[in-house]
Design a protein that fits this description.
The chain is α+β, with helices and mostly antiparallel strands and 406 residues long. The protein has helices at residues 2-12, 112-117, 127-139, 184-194, 212-215, 255-272, 345-353; strands at residues 22-25, 28-31, 44-50, 59-61, 63-67, 70-71, 77-80, 99-103, 141-145, 153-156, 166-172, 175-181, 200-203, 250-254, 288-291, 301-307, 317-326, 371-380, 386-388, 392-398. Helix 1 packs antiparallel against helix 6 and helix 6 (255-272) packs across helix 7.
Length: 406
């Protein structure tokens, strides 16, 4: 019995950062003389993932490119029901089984083809290059696969009005905007794949998301007239936009934090007679996964820089970590089987040590929410800048020691 009580206590234990000696410089707390224990290991980007079709399987890439709404092509397509409301794994877990793949010459291993595509102005001397780009654009596709459909579904990335089924008013949480639905054939395929009659795939036609050269036939050249989805300025103080994501353009997660969660899920197996299943990172659907350093160190970061290894001087990207990511039911869905875990062992484990109450959140409405990962917004770096697997992550600003969890 005593051992069981010790285990229960361990589950409830909260992470308490070590105290460092700091000085206050221009409103920012920085380490003065003592190197943070959590930074004893170099932290690098271990995985980058783009989710072209919201709530479906992602695509791991070596390099991603920054647009106005996050990474190029990320959450730039969305499935809606007959009323225009977005559909996600929360209500249709089978979406986890829909695979996505980019096909075409632009999507090479090093990303250089896509980088070239993001250049919107071609000089007269490069007309042959432009002809090559136009040819490749016609061949670029987003390919979908589902165990519920015998055939693949191909969505041409180069939009043509004659291939689309018309404008659709699309709602994602509190956002509502007019976008365009893909062809009737594509919409019929996704309806069969997820078992939702009348479902449609909608394309983002605002700035960002899909490189605008793919949308130039259907989107206005006046950027001020395009649909926009601004971020919540209570958290994203410097503004910003997103496309069809839940609310923010980029989500970061930490491998060490997942390992700590996994230990607690295994502990739950002993305490609550749960399955103690393996918890994979794909349940949390991050764009950026980092490795190295101590678990939950990301809670301390206010601003980070991502930069190519052995790079000197400029060239890095700076990111603001604006809001911890509150988790819904999706982490309780096995992303390989599409089956929802009715025991909710992942959420139950998180509730023990990652709820707003346990983390001493100063936001009252977060009391019963659980958190894993951080929403990020790029703060310095040109559009089209890239981030790559292997880039070094450096904390540039830290949250004050002893401060409440937002």
């Amino acid at each position: 019995m005593l051992e069981k009580e010790k285990e229960r206590s361990a589950l409830k234990r909260t992470y308490h950062p070590a105290q460092e000696k700091r000085v206050h410089v221009k409103g920012v707390f920085v380490v003065a003389t003592k190197k943070m224990e959590e930074n004893k290991d170099e932290i690098t980007i271990s995985r980058l993932t783009i989710y072209p079709l919201k709530s479906c399987k992602g695509i791991d890439v070596k390099t991603a490119y920054v647009t106005e709404t996050g990474f190029a092509f990320d959450r730039s397509f969305c499935i809606v029901d007959k009323d225009g409301e977005f559909i996600s794994q929360r209500t249709v877990p089978e979406l986890a089984l829909v695979e996505t793949e980019f096909r075409g010459a632009f999507f090479d291993d090093d990303g250089s083809g896509l980088e070239r595509l993001l250049v919107t102005k071609i000089s007269e001397e490069e007309e042959e290059v432009e002809e090559d780009i136009q040819s490749k654009m016609k061949d670029a596709k987003l390919v979908l696969r589902s165990p519920n459909c015998a055939e693949e579904c191909e969505i041409p990335l180069l939009a043509r009005k004659e291939d689309l089924s018309g404008e659709v008013e699309c709602s994602v949480w509190d956002y509502c905007g007019v976008h365009v639905a893909e062809s009737d054939a594509v919409n019929d395929w996704i309806s069969r794949a997820i078992g939702v009659p009348g479902a449609k795939i909608v394309r983002w036609i605002g700035s960002g998301g899909i490189p605008e050269r793919f949308n130039e036939n259907i989107s206005t050249s006046d950027k001020n007239s395009r649909p926009k989805r601004p971020l919540d300025d209570r958290y994203a103080k410097s503004g910003g936009q997103t496309a069809f994501s839940d609310g923010y353009p980029v989500l970061l997660a930490h491998e060490s934090s997942l390992e700590d969660l996994q230990k607690r899920v295994i502990l739950g197996k002993e305490l609550f007679s749960l399955a103690g299943n393996e918890v994979k990172m794909n349940r949390f659907r991050p764009n950026v996964v980092v490795s190295g350093g101590k678990e939950w160190i990301e809670d301390k970061w206010s601003k980070i820089e991502t930069k190519q290894q052995h790079s000197h001087g400029g060239g890095g990207l700076t990111w603001d970590l604006v809001k911890p990511c509150s988790r819904c039911t999706i982490p309780d869905i096995n992303q390989e089987s599409g089956i929802f875990d009715k025991t909710r062992e992942v959420s139950r484990a998180l509730q023990k040590f990652r709820s707003g109450t346990v983390l001493n959140s100063q936001t009252k409405t977060w009391a019963n929410e659980v958190f894993f990962g951080w929403n990020m917004v790029v703060s310095t770096g040109e559009l089209g800048s890239k981030i790559s697997v292997g880039d070094v992550v450096t904390a540039k600003e830290l949250r004050p020691t002893g401060a409440a969890f937002m």
